[in-house]
Amino acid sequence: MQDYEKLYKSLKIEYETYQKFSEQHIQELNEKNVRLEKSIDSLSNIIEVSKYINTFFSSDNLISLINDMILGILGVTYSTIFMIENGELIVKASNIENMNINLTSKEFVHINKGEEFLVNSRKPLKQTGEHKIDIHSIMGSPIKLREKFIGYIVVEHNLYKFMNIELKLFLRSITNQIAIAIENSLLYKELEKINQRDPLLGIYNRKYFFEFLEKNENRKLNDKFAIVMIDIDDFKKVNDTYGHQFGDKILINTANIVKYGIDKNDIFARYGGEEFILYISDFTSEDNVYSKIEAIRRTIEGSKINFNGRDESITASFGISFFPLNGTDLNELISKADDLLYKAKKSGKNRVLSGNIFKI
C-alpha cells in the first residue's frame, strides 16, 4: 500500500512539475505570438505608409500629407516636420496652431546633433499650442538620406508615457520611408522642370505652355488676358550666313530680353524655331500691354550680339491678341496673334501690331 502511495506522490510531483513547465512554455509562446503579431502589424503599417507616401511623392504638399499621416497612425497630439534648407532647419509642416513651435532646450540639443530621443515626464515638459496643452511625452527622430541629415520629426502627446520604444522604432522606420520619398520628390520635380523647359534657352517649351493655359484658363473665363506671338526677323538668312552658333546666340539674347521685360506672372515659351509665344494675364489696359511689348521690341533692336569680333544686331516682329476683345477661344486668339505677326512681317518687320489697334 505504501509503495502505491509513494508512486502516487511521485507521479503527482512529476505532473505538477510538467504542468508548471507547460504553463510557462505556453506563456512564453503567447508572449512570442503577441510580439510577432505586433511586428507583423508594424510591418504592415510600414508597408501601408510606404504605399501612401509613394502615391503622393509628386505632390507639392508631400510634407504636409506625411505630417497628417503621422498624426493619424501614431495618434499623437502634435507632429512637426523640419527640413534643412540653406543649412538651416525650417518648419515645413505642423498641426500646431500658427506654426508656433516651442522647443525645449533638450529638444534643441538632440535635434542639432541629429539624434533620436524619447522623453516622458509626470510633470509637464512644456505647453504647446494656443490652448497651452501640457505635454508629458515627446519623441524625435532624424530624417536621413544615406547618412546625410536632411530633416527631423518631433511628435508630442499630452499623456505621460504615451511614447515608448515600439513607437520610437516605428517612427524610425517611417523616417526612412520619408527620406526616400523626399529624394524621389526632388528627382521628380527636377525631371518635371527639365521636361517643361527648352534646353537651349531655359524658358518654357510649347508643351508646358499649352498645359498651363488649359489648367488655368478654364477657371478664369471672365478674366482678360493677352497672347503675344514673337518672331525674329530674317533668322534663316542670318543662320545661313553666320552659322548655327551665331543663331543660337541670337535666340538666347532675344529670350533673355523678353524674359527681363515681362512680369513674374507672365508665361513665356518657345513656340518653335525662332518663334516665341507669351501669355500676359495681369494688365490694366490693352494699351499698357502694347507699351510693354513695344519696349521689348526697341530693346531687341538696340542690342548688339558679338560674334567673331563683330557686333551684329537683329530685330523681331510681334502680334498681340486679347481675350475677350479678339476672341473667346485660345486657339482662335493664337491664330489672330499669328495673323497680326504675319501682317507685321509683310508691312516692314520690326514692329508690333495689336488687336486693339489693328483690326483683323
Concise description?
The protein is α+β, with helices and mostly antiparallel strands and 360 residues long.
What does this structure look like?
The protein is α+β, with helices and mostly antiparallel strands and 360 residues long. It has two domains: 53-196, Beta-Lactamase, CATH 3.30.450.40; 204-354, 2-Layer Sandwich (Alpha-Beta Plaits). Helix content is 50%, strand content 23%. The chain is built from nine helices and 15 strands. A six-stranded mixed β-sheet has the order 8-10-11-9-14-15. A five-stranded antiparallel β-sheet has the order 2-1-7-6-3, with helices on both faces. Helix 1 packs parallel to helix 4 (165-196), helix 2 (62-74) packs antiparallel against helix 4 (165-196) and helix 6 crosses helix 7 (244-261). The model has no long low-confidence stretch (mean pLDDT 84).
